[in-house]
Amino acid sequence: MRMRQWVALLIGVLVAAACIRLGFWQLDRRADRSAHNDTVHARTAAPPVPLSQLGLPADSLQYQRVLVRGQWDYHHELALTGRSHNGSPGVHIITPFIPNGIENAVLVNRGWVYAPDAAVIDFDRWRVEDSTAFIAYVELFPPPGERSPRSTRSPRSWHRIDTAAISRDLPYAIEPYYLVALPDSGALPAADRPARLAIPAIGTGPHLSYAVQWFAFATIALVGSMILIWRDRRTGSG
């Protein structure tokens, strides 16, 4: 074989090896995602536990269903802007809750309400009973962002939940997670309270299709290099 044929073969093998490695990496990510999904399914299928009985690191509690009893603090609630529901603009109402049985307060996403500008609402319109019990699931705070979490539309409007910034506005400490009230909780009709949010659907993601693509690229690299070598040999012998 000529030098350029060896070079073509080497390049093809190196490219194929890299693609195969990326393909197996995608399969590993799919396996990790499946294991995570199994954990999530187990948590969402299990009966809700009293909030006071969690007692685990926050990052191991996501999607755990809990039963919460206590009182709302409507004086410090806020609105998450730019949240849509069935194509309509609105906000999510985040209300501090003082639960029975634990020392700290906890933020609760009470759900979506309509707002024409997706930013400003009448909070008094959506107040329910002061003391209540409901079922929710545990959600983790998002990582801090670069821009300010506050909206300029209203002092009580926020672009995102920022645990450090919100904590500075509260007269008490909060738990290192927040809760999302589920649709099957609460005694009031849906029209008299924010539209509750469901646990997000989870899937295995596109990792399998990405793996197939990388394996296909590996095949193309090997076959392509062989074709180049074959053509070069035919040209040289001709």
The assigned structural class equals: alpha/beta
Helix segment count?
3
Helix content: 25-40%
Number of strands: 8
- Taken in chain order, the helices and strands follow as HEEEEEEEHEH
Q: Using only CA atoms, what is the Rg? A: 27 Å
Strand order of the largest sheet: 2-4-5-8-6
- As residue ranges, the low-confidence spans are none
Cα-to-Cα separation, first versus last residue: 15 Å
User: Beta-strand level of the residues, as a percent range?
Assistant: 15-25%
Short key terms for the protein model shown above:
238 residues; alpha/beta; 5-stranded mixed barrel; 3 helices; 8 strands
Describe the model:
This protein has 238 residues and is α/β, with parallel strands linked by helices. The protein has helices at 3-45, 163-168, 207-237; strands at residues 49-50, 65-72, 78-85, 88-99, 105-114, 131-139, 157-158, 174-181. 34% of the residues lie in helices and 25% in strands. A hairpin with a 5-residue loop joins strand 4 and strand 5 (105-114). The protein is elongated, with a radius of gyration of 27 Å.
Write the layout of secondary structure elements.
Blueprint: H1 3-45, E1 49-50, E2 65-72, E3 78-85, E4 88-99, E5 105-114, E6 131-139, E7 157-158, H2 163-168, E8 174-181, H3 207-237
Parallel strand pairs: 1-2, 3-7, 5-8
Antiparallel strand pairs: 2-4, 2-6, 3-4, 4-5, 6-8
Short description:
This protein has 238 residues and is an alpha/beta fold.
